[in-house]
Every structure is written in C-alpha cells, then in structure tokens.
Amino acid sequence: DTPGIVMEHMQASLLDVITLPFFKMVNKWDSALLSIASDVSKGMSNLHHLHGLYHRDLKPANILLDEHWTAKIADFGTALSSLKEDKTQEDLALQGTPPYMAPEIVRRTDYRGKPIDLWSFGVVAYACLGGHFPFAARSQPDLYRKILRGTYRLPEGCSSGAAALLQQCLVVDEARRITAPDLRRHPFVTAGLQNGQMAGGHV
C-alpha cells in the first residue's frame, strides 16, 4: 500500500481571489479583509505561541479559503522554530518571496523571527486593499532598498481602521511592530468579530 495524507479541501487561495477581474474593479473590500485578517491573526498567534514557529513566507498564495471564506495558513516549507537560538547561515539566507520580505530578512542579520510574519501580513493586507504592493521596483536590489527604507503611500480610499493596521505592521523597527496577539485585538480585526464575520482562523 502507498501511504498518503488526507487533507481538508479548500476552495481557493487568497491569491486566486484577489486576481479575479471582479476584485480588480473593486477599489476597496474592507469587509472581506476583516474576516481574513481575523482568521490569519488567530492562525499566526497559534503558530507563534502554541507551536513556537514562524512562517517566513506569508503571502496570498499561502492563505487558503474555504467556501465560507474561512482563511487558513498553509505551506510551512520555510518555517523555523523560535526555540532555535543559534541560527545558521542557511537560516539567515533570504527566505520567502521578495515583495513580502521584512527588512530584517533583507539585511540577512540575526532576527527575532515572529515580527517577520507581521510585516508580511501587512504587505498582504496592503495588496488586498490597494491591488498592488507597498514596495515595488524594477530590480530586486532596488526593491530591497525600498523595503529597508520602509516608506510607502497608503492605498487610495482605505478606511482609517485599515490604514492604522498597515501602519502598525509595516514598521521597519521590528521591536515596534505589532505582535500577533495585539493584531487579534486590533480594532480593525475585532470589527470582523463584532460583525460576525470571523469563521475560523487555523494553521
């Protein structure tokens, strides 16, 4: 017999959704992002504090959605244990997808780990709201320089709650970046809970 793994069926990735022509015509979709932000923040909190891991490649292709828009984090090929004290050169190599990389990844120096996922979440949220990346360039060196500077324009028409969320995620100083538990308590995210829009939030 050939061994196999039985996995939950998910309808699509977030990347599949945000590249649909319909969503390209929508200037903002805060209500949909509320549900996804709630789910992913819970998933990140579980990942960081229950499992002692950080993902390092959070992006729309790795956020899966079921028929109820419940979001779940997938693909842990680049995940690293937060309990690992001495990181190897391989651990500190560029990991992840360039537009979503945190400044500390780009610098290739030792880093705390968990804040990396919060930066990537901020880029994901920005891409959902604005339809493009907060940091974009014609070459990877130019992209990395923009990420290290950390300057960007807020997406046109995004709500004050969404803007506050982005400004707390996309902070170059990782010590000042929002944490996963604080993200779960953020007013923009809790609005999804109050509106009954949060379905799950699982790793």
Q: Your description of this structure?
A:
Helix 3 runs antiparallel to helix 6 and helix 3 crosses helix 10. Strands 1-3-4 form a 3-stranded antiparallel beta sheet. The chain is built from 10 helices and 5 strands; from the N terminus they run E-H-H-H-E-E-E-E-H-H-H-H-H-H-H. A hairpin with a 5-residue loop joins strand 3 and strand 4. The C terminus is likely disordered. Helix content is 44%, strand content 6%. With 203 residues, it is mostly helical. The radius of gyration is 16 Å and the shape is globular.
What structural category characterises the helix and strand content?
A: mainly alpha
Strand content: 5-15%
User: So how many helices?
Assistant: 10
Mean pLDDT: 79
Largest sheet: 3 strands, antiparallel
In the sheet with the most strands, the strands line up as: 1-3-4
Low-confidence segments, ≥5 residues, pLDDT <50? Answer: 195-203
**DSSP, total strands:** 5
Note the quaternary state here: single chain
Q: Distance N terminus to C terminus?
A: 29 Å
Q: Which term fits the overall shape? A: globular
Compact overview of the structure:
With 203 residues, the protein is mainly alpha-helical. It has helices spanning 14-18, 21-24, 30-50, 89-92, 103-107, 114-130, 140-149, 160-169, 180-184, 187-194, and strands at 12-13, 53-54, 63-65, 71-73, 80-81.
